[in-house]
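Newbie here. two chains, one complex. Structure please?
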Amino acid sequence: MGIRADNIYKIFRDFMALDGVSLNVGTGELVALLGPSGSGKTTLLRIIAGLEFADLGEIYIDREEASHTPVKERRVGFVFQHYALFRHMTVFENIAFGLRVRPKESRPSEGEIRKKVMRLIDLIHLSGLHNRYPAQLSGGQRQRVALARTLAVDPKVLLLDEPFGALDAKVRKELRRWLRKIHDELNITTIFVTHDQEEALELADRVVVMNNGKIEQVGSPEDVYHNPANAFVYDFLGNYNAFDGVIEENGECRVLKNGERLPAGRERVRLFARPHDMEISPQPQDKNAIPARIIHINPAGPMVSIELENEQGKLLQAAVTKERFMELGLEKRQTVYLKARDMRLFN
Amino acid sequence: MTDYALNIRTNHPLVESRTVRLTLIGAALFYIGIMIFLPLVIVFIEALRQGAHAYIDAITEPDALAAIKLTLLTASIAVPLNLVFGLAASWAIAKHDFRGKHLLITFIDLPFSVSPVISGLIYVLLFGSQAALGQWLDSHNIQILFAVPGIVIATIFVTFPFVAREMIPLMQEQGVEEEEAAILLGATGWQTFWRVTLPNVKWGLLYGVLLCNARAMGEFGAVSVVSGHIRGMTNTIPLHVEILYNEYNFVAAFAVASLLTVLALVTLLIKEGLERRLEKE
């Protein structure tokens, strides 16, 4: 049961939230909408759910045009960032809600409801807590109840709006893995919104990078990370160093040296390099090496991250392995030379 | 251990010296005593000045009973109507976006900003025999002014904002996500209202109804203008108190007034309880 968005436009007063967005999500796919706040990702999700209406464009769910289908008939499961659990109902009643509000002829019996709800409570590992109220649960538990509540009505598709945004780092990782597992078991078409690139890259089959109401790139996590389509995607998916550079006559790119004039007739370009692609050496590697002074060293983490300042006082970042760091014997305030192993140029 | 705790307390940057504290607390207590506590006590002292017998006589004589009945009748019509209206208005304002929303909020607040006497006067001008509507009603033998309907209408107007004012901030704070979740799970608008919106605000709603009721029973100004002060017919409790007082019948006046005072005290008590529940909501 796929989802297709066709040329969606949405304007809030004088703000263009979605500027002609088209997206195709295949059956059983797990897709991340990734972007900074204000990029339109949540608006797109809410339009698919039917909580907002597009000014222009169509939404197809399961190949059916759904733009005019009322929310309650779309059979879309939606999980909110702040859970939106019914605060006056127990865990059991929250999960049973979608079954209880069905019209008499399609409503399951009390026994069936009980069986289904208890099975879902098992699935979210909250056995024994069915009589708790939302206020008595932790954030991670609440979000799992919210997901179970949605799954109780057998949704055709699952939409999650920053589902782990309000949780702390450890719980977030745990729930991520757990969501992946549930998705793989139920094989339900899922779209989730996030501003956390790590979350998107780790969890999704495909990542949709959004900015200013437009889609910048769609691709596998590997693809968007290693082959970013433009400077925005590159920037959004990680830290980077930017340099003024020039294209040589032989077509090669080179970083301009401190104070170097742009050779006549050449175009100035911006070159980008990830911190882990920066090579550090106490001696200049070649004539293009950039001198810089170490201003901060953070050895906590799998890589040692180093912050440096070049001669103009511009901040540069580098990351080296622990072994390399020890080998070089780097220290704060030391002057070293940087060279990028891999650089990118965007038009 | 206790010395240590005391030390911390007096060294706290926000704690003033003993003299300042005692002076401020004393001034506050003195003010509350003179302005609030003393009048409250005097109502009961005056009411019981000639003994329990005179007190009971004063509140059981036919005119007093008629006034009590009328007050209860008025409140029992005005409060439910304002409950329904207030709930509908606050639901519309807090959970939906529409043109003219701010205008509606201003209108709901109007009875708070207009003097009750003026509100009464508006109905005299509207339903009086010099107005077109009044003449039409006259010709159809419908009596509004100087009769029970006028009193009820004036009371509704004055107590109009209580429920809505209590509910709007509460509903706004709760947002619309739970309602959205309910609709997404397949609930109808009606089911969403009864199963999600209403249970979430029930204590706030009771609180608003309580304040609305207290005001409905105690309203003097607006009702005074439209009632016509017909003893045993169009006198509510506050109007009855005024008549007794003007007749220098102080014991009876205070006896009947003590009923409203008791109402006020009971209201306060329930209000305390509700506020505690509300904090949980």
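Moderator note: The mean pLDDT of chain B is 90. Chain B has 14 helices and no strands. Thread marked as resolved.
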